[in-house]
Amino acid sequence: MKWSYEPAHAEAVPEAFMRAYAMAVQPPAGPVFLSIPLDDWNHPLDGPAVLRDVSRTYAPDPERLRRFAERITVSQRPALILGPDVDRARGWQAGIALAEKLKAAVYSPPLPDRASFPEDHPLYQGSVGMSVKAVGERLAGHDLVVVIGAEVFRYYPYVPGDILPAGTELLQITDDPATAAAARVGDSLLGDARLSIELLTGLVGDGSGRAQPNPMRRTRRLPENPSSPLTPAEVYSALSEVRPEHAVFVNESTSTMAQHAEWLPTVEPDSFFATASGGIGWAAPAAVGVALGDRDRGVTRPVIGLIGDGSFQYSVQGLWTAVQQNLPIVYVVMRNHEYSILKSFAELEETPGVPGLDLPGLDIASVARGLGCHAVDVTSTGDLEKEFRLALESGTTSVIVVTTQPEKAML
Fold first, then answer.
1. Which pTM value belongs to this model?
2. Cβ–Cβ under 8 Å, residues 308 and 374
3. Confidence category of residue 223, pLDDT binned at 50, 70, 90
4. Are 11 and 46 a contacting pair, CB within 8 Å?
5. What is the 3-state secondary structure (H, E, C) of 79-111?
């Protein structure tokens, strides 16, 4: 929690509500906890409640931002890392304008929980990786790295290496003082992501003297003949064929995130959500939250949950809420009969054969039907595409369980 509190007396409840609201929406936005003693509800309010509103954005220090702009302008080969706070701040278009003015390579940060730049843009170069070693190697050749709306850096597996290549400098812009304080390298500036990008774009010189990075190459390898069980690449390839316009993806198939990026690149704001920490069991209820939020905002779009069979077990009861609320969610559960991500970690830590990581005999479709969903098992790409289209047309909560081969995670 950002803040937890219990009012000492009933008269303080309205004030506590306003304080809780203000703290929840101020950056970095997050949950607060307010405990109201049961008998407080029996006390009449003495006079009208005081209603307040608070700002959710703040501008960066102008002089410090100017110095950042000067350093970026003289950079020969800058890299932009646009993190999830850019998407939260509605900063997509601002980020595109800055990248194009600079002719800078754009990367996504390690383990992003949102996408903040169109992944089909010619300047987009993919992820920087998920470990210290991977990030350091990926940024080789850049003399300056500008991180906006992300940590420096959020890592997943521990693989030792250099945080930055020798001779590379780093600038960070974040709305979170704790994130700025935790950065292990570079200089930081506090400010709202979108506002900071817009101001920075007006201050930096253009990149006319820089060579534009080559567009990222997508491998998109598929087996010569259909596999049985399907490979994750075949599943994502099939989904790319039936991907509806303006769909939002909620992904918790951690061992297949690379295939998601390869076949289902994010191309518009507020349309990709993933777990920020690697904790298991997030996506099933998160898809419910996204769909409820869309309904509340008057937005109509399909919500697609891509989840591994292991992750799905942790909060499968979220399906009941989805059904009761009649939410248009299509869950695609990739059943590989194991915790592939944990097996990958075991190999990374040189401890193969860890017990308890196999998941045989799970009848996920039956469990989903028991909670009120329409649910089917599929084994081919043709059936997957057919059932996916039917699920979209139904407008209700559906679960498609597709048997896949285990995939070693790209750690």
1. 0.92
2. no
3. confident
4. yes
5. EEEECHHHHHCCCHHHHHHHHHHHCCEEEECCC
